[in-house]
Amino acid sequence: MKDRHIKSKENISNIKSKNTKCVVSKRCGACSSLNIPYEKQLEDKEKMLKKLFDKKIKINHIIGMKNPYNYRNKVHAAFANNRGTVISGVYEMGTHKVVQVDNCLIEDKKAREIISTIRNLSKSFKIRIYDEDRRDGLLRHVLIRRGFKSGEIMVVLVVASLVFPSKNNFVKALLKAHPDITTIVLNENNKKTSMVLGDREKVIYGKGYIMDTLCGCVFKISPKSFYQVNPVQTEILYNKAINLLELKGTETVIDAYCGIGTMGIIASSKVKKVIGVELNGDAVKDAIFNSKLNKIQNARFFEGDAGDFMSDMAARGEKIDAVIMDPPRSGSTEKFIDSIAKIKPQKVVYVSCNPETLARDLKYFKRKGYKTSEIYPVDMFPHTLHSECVCLLTKK
Known about the structure:
With 396 residues, the protein is of the alpha/beta class. The chain has helices at 2-12, 25-28, 38-52, 109-124, 167-177, 231-244, 262-267, 281-293, 306-315, 334-343, 355-367; strands spanning 58-59, 74-82, 85-91, 98-100, 139-146, 153-159, 183-188, 200-205, 210-214, 217-221, 252-256, 273-278, 299-303, 322-325, 347-352, 370-371, 374-378, 388-395. β5 and β6 form a beta hairpin. The radius of gyration is 22 Å and the shape is globular.
């Protein structure tokens, strides 16, 4: 891993800022570090992490990207009507005012081309753009997901109603412009909410999902699936997390917050048994599908709260050897960590997208008899202030 980081730094040392080409960076706010040379960004992130964590914890060099641009394989655009002109882009910082974005230095280029085409087609097909204040109109958002290795492309049209005028002709026109699109889905969101996707969906072209390969395993990705947006760095992150466990093939491992089963399935070839637990029922269905797709025989996935699941196992006297956890930005909870303490695994691997909540949770883990000595940062989000971290906790 050190060698990979050194090579990475050699490749990035001369990368200059491209901010002169981004005309909306100050209003958008998504790339707050775009002005800063990439090597300096990595140095700044390392310094921030060293200030955040206990001095006794070693912060390893952050693993950067060889090419830290156009890495996002999931692209979202909000649509709005600006004095009769259809615009699409991102919300201006702290507002719900849409800033027009035609090109983005961190997003997949093909996705932005498709969004521009949809914006133009909305004019020719006279599709009414949704007005949040009046709660009137049809098209609200467009979400594009692209398989990094498969090349498959999903287009999700987020609409106020599944009744889409001239639907067939619209699809034909979009496919004529972009024949590499593999599926198109209508997602209904007619609620006054900041959430992009609603609950109801209708597939209007293709199979309704895409496939992609990560760490040698194939995954089904649905519109709502959690799937890391930077696949290049995700492979580095996940391999590091699994390698930290030093698995011997005899272990029973729980994949908490398992989502569509990515980490558990990737780890399955190195353990005796994987148990995945996830609150989102649709994600669990995808995890089961993915397990069968990869011909995994030693993984089982369950819908429910992982903390409650482990507490129940502990009450029955069942044992596990390790826990893999990848919680949301809000981090874990004391209740969840208490459940780990009850079932007493020897090892816990914590993957975190928010160093602040990781630092908080490590303090509580320590009270429960688990300690870590090293943090391994991975730059999943170049040109932003965010970084992903992974660490191994062992029972004292």
